[in-house]
Amino acid sequence: MEVVINHLGDVQFEVKARNHTLYCDQPVEAGGYDEGMTPPEFFLASLGACAGYYAAQYIKGHKLNPTGLRVRVKAEKAKAPARLDDLRIHVEYPEALDERHREGLLRAVHACLIHNTLLAPPKMTTEIVAPRALASAA
């Protein structure tokens, strides 16, 4: 799995995955043009779409009506270090669910790949890939 991000200028980026392209930007008040989601919004979107996928799979597997399924993800900004905190996933389903399906739907959403990645943080490395500057002769 790989995503490639190209800088377009200012605070805009092109995000490519397989044959898909998205654009990342900042709001006008943060120096951007507001032509795409911010990185934290992409992050929340990823979590919500993953939770939605697992919820939809549960609903489909139990022959429930998928119409109206919606996921909302909210978070707060925290500092020291800067990060998102207090993530809240709200799975909204417009029809009444008995306790068995409520619990099943919750278990399904908890199986989400992104959700589980956040619960068991992955190993992460950062590497700068650039030619090294020649040492200047003193």
Description:
With 138 residues, the chain is of the alpha+beta class. The chain has two domains: 1-36; 38-119, GMP Synthetase, Chain A, domain 3 (2-Layer Sandwich). Helices cover 30% and strands 26% of the residues. The protein has three helices and five strands, in the order βββαββαα. It has helices spanning 39-61, 99-110, 113-119, and strands at 4-9, 12-17, 20-24, 70-78, 83-92. The strands form two sheets. The protein has a three-stranded antiparallel sheet, with no helix packed on it. Helix 1 (39-61) packs across helix 2 (99-110). The longest helix is centred in the middle third of the chain and has 23 residues, at 39-61. The model has no long low-confidence stretch (mean pLDDT 96).
Describe the structure concisely.
The protein has 138 residues and is of the alpha+beta class. The chain has helices at residues 39-61, 99-110, 113-119; strands at residues 4-9, 12-17, 20-24, 70-78, 83-92.
Report on the biggest sheet: 3 strands, antiparallel
What share of the residues lie within helices?
25-40%
> What best-fitting shape do the alpha-carbon axes yield?
elongated
**What's the CATH topology name of the largest domain?**
GMP Synthetase, Chain A, domain 3
Beta-strand content: 25-35%
Radius of gyration: 20 Å
Q: Which spans of ≥5 residues are poorly predicted at pLDDT below 50?
A: none
Q: Please state how the strands of the largest beta sheet are arranged side by side.
A: 1-2-3
According to CATH, what is the class of the largest domain? Alpha Beta
Please, what is the CATH homologous superfamily of the largest domain?
K homology (KH) domain
| Domains, number | 2
Helix and strand pattern: EEEHEEHH
Q: In total, how many beta strands? A: 5
